[in-house]
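User: I'm curious whether this sequence folds into something compact or stays loose and floppy. Could you predict its structure so I can see for myself?
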Amino acid sequence: MKLFILLSRVPYPLEKGDKLRAFNQIKELSKKHQIILFALNDDKLDDKALHELKKYCEAISIVNFSKFTIFFNLIRAFFNGNPMQVGYFYFSKAQKKVDELIKKHKPDHIYCQLIRTAEYIKKFPHIPKTLDYMDVFSKGIERRISSDSFCLKPFLVMEYRRLLKYEKKAFAYFNNKTIISEQDKNLIPHSEKNKIVVVPNGVDTSFFKPIQHKKEFELLFNGNMNYPPNIESVEYLVEKVMPFVWNKLPHTRLLISGATPNKTVQDLASEKVIVTGWVDDIRINFVKSKILVAPMQISIGLQNKLLEAMAMQLPCITSTLANNALGAKPGEQILVADSPEQYALHIIDLLQNESKAKQIAMNGYHFVINNFNWQSTTSILEKLIYEK
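Assistant: Here's the prediction. I'll summarize afterward.
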């Protein structure tokens, strides 16, 4: 089968969740299907991107767009009523290229990741299509309304209302709809949301696996450090949780690891809080650390940081919100907290009780190995594609 895959970002390097999901799905689908990849790009293309993607794609088209284009995209979206999340990525040059590619390759199926790409395929009703909602953008924005600055609130309220409308509207454009978790599925504003199929993320257990290494840090937070939910989470961790921990264990060190840390994150750095930025091999920071803490406050979707840490046998502590998407057993496979005091108690307990930390880590490892691998999760998507 010939699959036309439409993405809002080039899926390499794998420093963001949507790239990680797309790359691994392409890798698995390419084993049986021809992949025609179209991706938008608003950043400098990584030197290795085309080399890595050519391993799995028969044809690759990347359309670059500038800040100048983005500005006019957003102005147009503001006046036509589309969400900024959609308007940012939609422009005529890219639409023309999509039209040309579909005419040339005559795909059997179109697969779009995120509602950001849905506008491009409306004119092709005769081709079966699948939309990966992945996350529920509207809920993510709604959760930010109460925590972001007063000046941003009117914009966030407008974007939230538009996203609600568009998430419902896009439903009709596609034969199949997928999403990353049952929790997110239940948040889609559509009366037939039960038809959405959950396709979880996986983890590459041949890469993320237990490695022996000297521990240099007690705690780790990992993720794209220019992403609002991650920024809010590390602020919460450093400013609200760690004072309780340091009161009991004053020498505890926290490593904040991940791409493009913004100024807010950089300002958290101290003798006890180390901010690294992007690292070529994220596994090194996992194995240097004793515990992964992910106090996600406005999380949507499934947290890859938890899957990767558990696959490397790190005990994990996270919020109820994040674990609802993951589905691990609290107290057995993961520890769950919803207040600074609870997080601190869990951290102190694991740092002082090595046998408990090892047991949580081992239980979490088996949970991920048995439930999250790219072969099995992508097979759910592949079955949908075959059906329509």
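Summary: Residues 142 and 160 are 6 Å apart (CA to CA). The mean pLDDT is 95.
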